[in-house]
Amino acid sequence: MTIALNETHDPARRSFVESANAPGSDFPIQNLPFGVFCPDTKERPRVGVAIGDQILDIAAATPSFGGPVAGAAKACAAPHLNELMSLGPQAWSGLRLALSRSLSADHGDKSLRQHLTPMAQAELTLPAAIGDFTDFYASIFHATNAGRAFRPENPLLPNYKYLPVAYHGRASSVRVSGTAVKRPQGQRKRAEEAVPSYGPSRNLDFELELGFYIGVPSRLGDTIPIAAAADHIFGFCLLNDWSARDVQGWEYQPLGPFLGKNFATTVSPWVVTQEALAPFRIAAFTRPDGDPAPLPHLACATDQKQGGLDITLEAYMATDVMRRAGTSPQRLTQTSFATTYWTVAQMVAHHASNGCDLAIGDLLGSGTVSGPDKSSWGSLLELSARGREPIPMPSGEQRGFIEDGDEIIFRGFCAKPGFARIGFGECRAVILPAG
Amino acid sequence: MTIALNETHDPARRSFVESANAPGSDFPIQNLPFGVFCPDTKERPRVGVAIGDQILDIAAATPSFGGPVAGAAKACAAPHLNELMSLGPQAWSGLRLALSRSLSADHGDKSLRQHLTPMAQAELTLPAAIGDFTDFYASIFHATNAGRAFRPENPLLPNYKYLPVAYHGRASSVRVSGTAVKRPQGQRKRAEEAVPSYGPSRNLDFELELGFYIGVPSRLGDTIPIAAAADHIFGFCLLNDWSARDVQGWEYQPLGPFLGKNFATTVSPWVVTQEALAPFRIAAFTRPDGDPAPLPHLACATDQKQGGLDITLEAYMATDVMRRAGTSPQRLTQTSFATTYWTVAQMVAHHASNGCDLAIGDLLGSGTVSGPDKSSWGSLLELSARGREPIPMPSGEQRGFIEDGDEIIFRGFCAKPGFARIGFGECRAVILPAG
């Protein structure tokens, strides 16, 4: 399905919520990402939409909407997005259109102001009830860099260009941005050590990823045709696949990452819809000459022609010393999701190609998004060459891997002439000491 | 915790449900496994206990029980075991004792007959709401055999004797015994082929495993001491980790099994409690001289002295031709869970050793249980030497891997002089053609 541009993408539309019209806002009226929030600690979580620095309580605004949109708005009383997801893409799109009109400066319903909560006052929670979490490995630059670190003689394996490699992650330990992460303990063994020992990870890392939620399920035994695969996606977020490299390196053969990853995964609270991202597909990446064509079940001319989502992804670090000194976080990398070898449609089609069922609320991660150059690599494993080339920080400190008290902050946005900037907000967490 | 033997283990106790007293019964009054059933298609699922060839509707029997047991019985009105699990081991044990007394021939409450449903008439459903599914690799015999098949030069990897290797499986595709499994499609490449192709798996296999459910949760960031690890387990079942060997072989590097496994996992409907299995621990397996001792966080003298659970596990096959001819299923293997290198306590302690949270209803699998000899290997990959040595069937057919229409049946039981036989029932599924 090609998502058509419509009035919700009109860059001239402004909101009566003035903060949404500021040039650098992540959440202009053209974005309208969904999330789950508590207006205050006494109230239950419910679905809201971000507009500027405010959150609209959608269910509370139900009386403003007519017909089928009212049904979608009512589904936003739930403490996660799953109820809204279950209504399907037409309902999502209808609700988005109604929100865009109702929040517009010209013809909006200004009585909705009573249902706004300042984002700074709200508690944002995990947006979906996640059944299963799957993490891909879609960036060929990351796969090559990481492969070189773990297998110098054999970085990119023969299957890489034929299928989007993935593994199952841990759903229970996914947390929303702002939740501190405790440094994991685990077994690790340095090359020069004869035997492993158990203790706090010495090589804690982030992985800069794009996450996406399944909104349209598939049944066990059914496959999903590549041309329809993107239609199953509700929306996108930032995702930090925290990785204890020493634990991972010791444990991962032959069955893949386990304790090196499953102690925590952090996601941003706002889920940006496919419709909001429709203007930002570009054919940035083409398979180099000589690479195999995708097998038919992963090949879609329309998908390839539209290309990847040109979402700029950034990772920042603020050490404890920097935060105390009021120093701004240091940017470590900036990359684009459009550089990945596999598109999200290919990832979804592959996931269901054996009949595995996808459920509403399932979370999929892209894998670390690294671009071709060092300035665009998506993990410290790559950026610091496994810690051998530490990164200087403005505080005079340096970092090969993450230390206790460090905060990692991801940001993401789409920008293009003729369109409003679409932001993802932030995905952040401070690392606490082990134990 | 050591589970003390008590009156519920008394081999002399008989039930007024006569079928429970038959010598070969899987479900004597000393077993009392929990499951979820629908008495008929018009009614909602609820928790029951197996007694002979009958199922007792526990919630319906609540008025027979006094005090705190009534609370546990009421939790059995739920459509999965999670509510009962959440009450904790004392509640499970109290309910078991009350059921043992109430169903006994001598002093039982025969009015409970009104709450019995013949097992043959009931529909048994998935016993738990499973959040995450983790599969281990605890049999060193299987790890060596399977390693040899995929990596002839390097079958057992250096980490194997230091940690119970595991990976995350797919929770959404776990199904209860009796649910047919469709042959998966996928990418596979024979050694002599230059490129992979997509189509029905040519090497469909079973893996004979023991499953266990978490009943006592742990919090994110907390570890579980090895001495307390077994206390987190509610009970055990049979588990078939269906595996498409050709898909797995092509996809699994570097991140582990994914589509080769996640199309289906089958579990038996009855969950046998730790208390019922308490008499059957034996020190059958000891680490060979020269093997490293477990690191302190995985070492527990009591656990090692008590040894593994001596559960006999069997796999049978009935081809379509055999079923039509009325031929009994052919036994393919018989093994004991006590031969695994790692105990269930070690698996649980390892899983939480990095702070990963375990949730009520989580399913853990042991990995294929293979013993030292060919007669005790737990998969066709091993039994047929990757299909090169097909197994003759009584119908004159032979099988290297599973063909369409074949039914795989697992059975499990504990038997020991001086104790009643504790059975697991069956875990079975027929393979349907792909497409």
Overview of this protein structure:
2 copies of one chain form a homodimer. Chain A is α+β, with helices and mostly antiparallel strands and 435 residues long. The first copy, chain A, has 2 domains: 7-125, SH3 type barrels; 133-309 and 325-396, Fumarylacetoacetate hydrolase, domain 2 (Alpha-Beta Complex). In chain A, 18% of the residues lie in helices and 25% in strands. Chain A has 11 helices and 26 strands. Chain A has helices spanning 67-74, 82-86, 89-102, 140-150, 226-229, 245-251, 274-277, 301-306, 320-325, 344-351, 380-383, and strands at 34-38, 46-51, 54-57, 116-118, 123-125, 133-136, 166-168, 174-176, 181-182, 185-188, 197-200, 204-205, 208-214, 233-240, 243-244, 265-267, 272-273, 281-282, 308-309, 312-318, 330-336, 363-365, 391-392, 398-399, 407-414, 422-432. In chain A, strands 6, 7, 8, 13, 14, 16, 17 and 22 form an 8-stranded mixed sheet that branches. The longest helix of chain A is centred in the first third of the chain and has 14 residues, at 89-102. The first copy, chain A, starts with 33 loop residues before the first strand and ends with a strand. Chains A and B meet through strand 7, strand 10 and helix 6 of A and strand 7, strand 10 and helix 6 of B.
Concise summary:
Helix content of chain A is 18%, strand content 25%.
Query: Helix segment count of chain A?
Result: 11
Low-confidence regions of chain A: none
Number of strand elements of chain A: 26
Overall helicity of chain A: 10-25%
The top-level CATH class of the largest domain in chain A is Alpha Beta
Q: What is the straight-line distance between the termini of chain A?
A: 49 Å
CATH topology of the largest domain in chain A: Fumarylacetoacetate hydrolase, domain 2
Q: Whole-number radius of gyration of chain A?
A: 21 Å
Overall mean pLDDT of chain A stands at 96
Q: State the oligomer.
A: homodimer
Instruction: Identify the biggest protein-protein contact and residues per side.
Output: A-B, 63 and 63 residues
Characterize the overall form of chain A: globular
Q: How would a crystallographer describe the biggest sheet of chain A?
A: 8 strands, mixed
**Structural class assignment of chain A:** alpha+beta
Q: By CATH's scheme, which homologous superfamily of the largest domain in chain A applies?
A: Fumarylacetoacetase-like, C-terminal domain
**CATH architect. name of the largest domain in chain A:** Alpha-Beta Complex
Portion in strands of chain A: 25-35%
State the domain count of chain A.
Answer: 2
